[in-house]
Every structure is written in C-alpha cells, then in structure tokens.
Amino acid sequence: MTESKAGQPALTDHRIQTSQRSRPLPQEAAPYQDMPIGRVVAQYKDLYKVASQRAEVIAEISGKLRYASKGLSDFPAVGDYVMIDREDPQSGNAIIHHILPRKSVFVRKAAGTTHDIQVVAANIDTVFICMALNNDFNIRRLERYLAIAWDSGAIPVVVLTKADLCGDLSAKLSEIQKIALGVDVLVTTSMTGDGYKVILKYLGANQTVAFIGSSGVGKSTLINRLLGEDVQKTLEIGKDDKGRHATTQRELFILSSGGAVIDTPGMREIGVESADLAKAFTEIDDLASMCRFNDCRHEEEPGCAVRKAIQEGALSEDRLASYKKLKKEAKYQQLNARQIEKEKVDEMYDHFDGIKNAKAFVKSKNKDR
To answer: Domains of the chain (ranges plus CATH)?
Structure first.
C-alpha cells in the first residue's frame, strides 16, 4: 500500500475501482439524507478508506461518535456502511458521523483487554471457512469456525483448498459431512487455472464474502484468482506443509461481478467470544432436548439421550467432547479472572452436588483411614 505525501494512505490504489453503486440505499440511511453514504474498504490505525458513489476518501470518525462509543465494537470496521460529510478527496479528510446497523459481524477479542471485542468485518453475506487438505486438516478446528461463523449472522461455506495435495479426499469429505450439517462444502485447487471457480456462484452483485481460516491455507491465493491479479502476497508451503501468514491487514476488494470480498489476517488467535453452538452442533442440541433432566451434563445421568446416541454409534465421543470444550470456552470468555476461578471451583464440587456434600465426602474418607 502506497502513501500520500502527507503520510496518509493513497487513494490511487487500482484494486478498489468503484464502490458497490448498484446496492440499494439502506433504509437506515433515510434519516441522514443530507450526508453521502459510503462503505469502509480499508482500515488503518486511526483512519479509514471509504468508497462512496463518487470517489474514495480517507476518513476519520467524528468527536461525537468517538465520545459515544462504549468499546472497540462501536468503531467502524471493514464492510461497514457509514454516513460521511463529504466525497471530495481534495477537501481534506472526510468525517464519519454514523455507522449504519450491521446485518452481520465477525468479532474477536481485542488485544490487551479483558472483555472488549473488536469487529473484524461487517455486513458479510457468506463466510468461506478455508481449510487445506494437507496437514492443516483438523475437524475439531472446523467445528470451532462453524460455531463462530453461524453466530456472525452470515452463511458459512466450507472451502477445502489444496486438493492436489490430498490422497484421501473421500475420507475427509465423509468426516466433514458428519459435522457440517446443512453447510455447503466446496473443493478447490487454486494452483490450477480454474480450480477456484466453484466459489463464483456466491459472488454475485451486491454479495459480500469473507475468507477465514488458519494462516497459509490459500485464502490470499484464492482472492488473487478471483481478482485476476496478484494483489495479495502469498507464501509457499514449506516441507512440513505448514503455511505461513501472508495477509497483514483487513481489506475489502470489489470484484468485476459487483460483489465484494474481504480478506482477513490469519485467524489462529480467534476465540469463541461469540459462537452459535446450537447451529454448529445441531444434532447434540436436538438430543439434549430429549434428556430426562433439563440440566443434564451428558455424563452419567439416567435418561440421557446424548449418551444413548453415543452408545448406539449415532454420535461420536469426540464430537461431544468438542461441544463441551467450546461451550466452556465461550462461557469463560465472558468472565474475569475471579469469576473463572469460581466457575472452576463450582465445577469441581458439582459432582458432589455442592461444597457442603464435598466436605462431608472428604470427612468420611478421613475417618476410614
């Protein structure tokens, strides 16, 4: 990314040639008809690149918007529709006065904070969950991404990359179909001329997609194929088949079809601050509703429909373990250190139906010695 003479991001970047002009004006913008509407296409430290119907401008948020913001999630993010005060890049930085309501959001925990979350991308229609068919393949990680993607408000699609490096494709597809219920699964080979074309049907006019997945799985390579040029730096896989991180910032790219694609940095650090386990583990959720007890832990309780499904081979023990792990992680993400310790103590004594019974159990054991 080049910079202007004033040290700001340049506006002559050939990768962003137009805003999505054909997209209908959101109804939420009606109260601000005296202001142009734009979309955030790139985000820097304190500045944003916004594409409007007339031009691209560098923008900053208004003092009022900054004062009213309660956390990082209240600041603009790539993909946001915003109301700005000007469209002329020659008249100084534009001011962002309003962020229109988001139809979907993808978030992560902000670095160095306890509870604050940061919006990685907004207003996404389809989330492509990319996973390479080499040593990166991890079914448990895919469950995590599906839970996060479902909660974002967008539709998840599993994109399997580097199919040319896979010798047991049928077996891997079978594993995925057991856990990605109701989700499209696409196989791509971005190293070939047309190996990416299976994803084109999701990239029509006014459609915005985002790519998530571990570093080096081929997200940037796929975007380069979609744009028809190498605008995103890519890195080759090493001998150990582990990709290295290539993308350094979040950015929205406009496609010739009128759609838009958002690329994100490597997502290994993403937690489950916001996850929809009911959709990601829909079969467990359905089974749990048939358990005898509403607070069933699916361990040794009588009348547990989940344990029965495992005994009958309809559900795997690993799948249930993954569900419990993500459920616990999602709960812990919302707590501070003291609350987390209390939760751990409560869980420790839960098997004894409370601390009082636990103390009685220990006392009886001591008497037996």
So the answer is: 27-101 (2.40.50.140), 120-263 (3.40.50.300), 277-368 (1.10.40.50)
